[in-house]
Specification:
alpha/beta; single chain; four-stranded mixed sheet; disordered N terminus; 460 residues
Length: 460
């Protein structure tokens, strides 16, 4: 789930278990059906000419935990090895720090054509910010070549397919999750300052950016930062741009990104927010009551897996957060499964993709076991109305309706292959401006030069 999806900084590995169906009437349960299906698939694989080693390239434990918990027949051997039938599963895990994951993947893909079958990459994972870098190459297989049809994917959210569709219109990957965002706020602080913690009422205080800024002053007067850092709002603004980072080979800064700069500078200068780097210790202090942070922006994976939910004394552990829409809809992160061209395990790759991203029973299990928001519109809309589903970290609230509102309006038409580098360098340069270490012109110059150094084919 975790965008970016937390990369190597995914805070908690999920130890979920499959939900068993009710078999008291002698009928086959959903889990039993899946197990039987997988046994048949395993037998087919054993009799085929497909490979005996499935190599999967990832940057953290998230996908591994999903497969272990929700793919029938998977058995863990050790931290980097598993078994599916007679196939050995090898997990190549490289953190994203300093671009290490992409560098490792790139080197392996360059050797793919000449690699021995048991050494070939079969599956690798992608994030939205750099998906097009791989999708627009021959290293990723069109999923139709695996035998996956449009009908198989009819219930998936369109934006999750747009992200991994190449310039020729070929779909090159699938995701089990969708990552619409929300504003997670501190229930106790809301009651103390506003006299209510009901989402509909708190939304009135954050309904747009002008109101957000006014509320930030009220919160400061009561000892709270509205969010931990200026960087917390970045994804909301950057997901609502009207142009791409690069237009005709030239670096382009969208007006909405400059609005983020202008609004953030005001918040920082007024002392309403800090300038902490995302994932830093200072940024994370708000996970605890003494941190005095009112809210964080994020998708389901942030609140469930990255805000110390398993740590006694944290707000999440006490069920002290709640969710509302915030000023604008946005998404953040997500993980896509791509099949590597040249895989010698196409049947197994297809089955893993379909089981984890298109099987409705499996996806509902993921929601219930892992509190993820999954890539199945009918399932999510039904569960949004299910009063029995409650999020522990959100004090029993069912947030799925809020996420459902945001996901239908997501527009991915302005993605570009340069998003990861441009987003990173822009935030870094603007941090110097927010802190008073550079003028705006100096910060912009720093940004342009850093991007051109990273992507020499670009101009500004």
């Amino acid at each position: 789930m975790k965008k970016k999806i937390v990369s190597a900084l995914l805070c908690l590995s999920m130890a979920a278990t499959m939900l068993a169906g009710c078999g008291s009437d002698g009928k086959e349960t959903n889990t039993e059906k899946k197990d039987n299906t997988q046994q048949e698939a395993g037998a087919d694989n054993a009799e085929s000419d497909e490979g005996k080693v499935l190599n999967i390239y990832v940057w953290n434990e998230e996908f591994k935990s999903r497969v272990a918990a929700h793919y029938p027949g998977y058995e863990e051997v050790d931290a980097t090895t598993g078994k599916i039938g007679d196939v050995t599963v090898k997990w190549n895990i490289t953190p994203t720090d300093d671009n290490a994951y992409q560098n490792n993947l790139d080197a392996a893909l360059l050797e793919q054509a000449d690699a021995a079958d048991d050494d070939k990459i079969d599956i690798f994972l992608l994030e939205a910010d750099y998906a097009l870098k791989y999708v627009n190459t021959d290293y990723t297989m069109p999923i139709k070549e695996l035998g996956i049809t449009e009908e198989d994917l009819a219930n998936q959210y369109p934006y999750t397919k747009d992200i991994v569709t190449d310039s020729e219109g070929e779909l090159k990957g699938l995701s089990w999750q969708a990552c619409p965002g929300a504003l997670f706020y501190n229930r106790e602080a809301a009651m103390e300052i506003f006299g209510t913690y009901e989402p509909e009422e708190i939304q009135k205080y954050v309904k747009d950016w002008d109101t957000f800024t006014e509320t930030a002053k009220t919160l400061k007067d009561n000892g709270y930062s509205i969010v931990s850092s200026a960087n917390d709002t970045y994804r909301v603004y950057s997901n609502n741009v009207t142009s791409k980072w690069v237009e005709d080979g030239k670096i382009n800064i969208d007006d909405n990104l400059m609005k983020w700069v202008e609004d953030s500078k005001k918040l920082v200068e007024a002392g309403y927010v800090g300038t902490h780097d995302m994932w830093s210790d200072d940024w994370s202090k708000g996970f605890y009551p003494d941190g005095k942070v009112f809210a964080y922006f994020g998708p389901a994976w942030l609140i469930n897996f990255c805000m110390a939910a398993d740590t006694e004394g944290s707000i999440a552990n006490a069920g002290g957060w709640a969710a509302t829409e915030g000023p604008q809809g946005f998404y953040w992160g997500g993980t896509w499964i791509a099949a590597a061209t040249g895989t010698d395990n196409p049947t197994l790759v297809k089955d893993i993709m379909l089981t984890l991203t298109a099987d409705e029973d499996t996806m509902i299990d993921i929601v219930k076991d892992d509190d993820d928001f999954v890539n199945n519109k009918p399932a999510m809309e039904a569960m949004a109305e299910d009063e029995s589903y409650q999020s522990g970290v959100l004090g029993g609230q069912n947030p799925l309706g809020i996420f459902c509102k945001g996901v239908d309006d997501l527009d991915l038409s302005n993605l570009s292959p340069y998003d990861a580098g441009c987003n990173e360098e822009f935030q870094g340069a603007m941090a110097n401006y927010f802190k008073g270490n550079a003028t705006l012109d100096e910060a912009l110059d720093q940004f342009y030069k850093a991007v051109v150094e990273k992507y020499p084919e670009l101009t500004y």
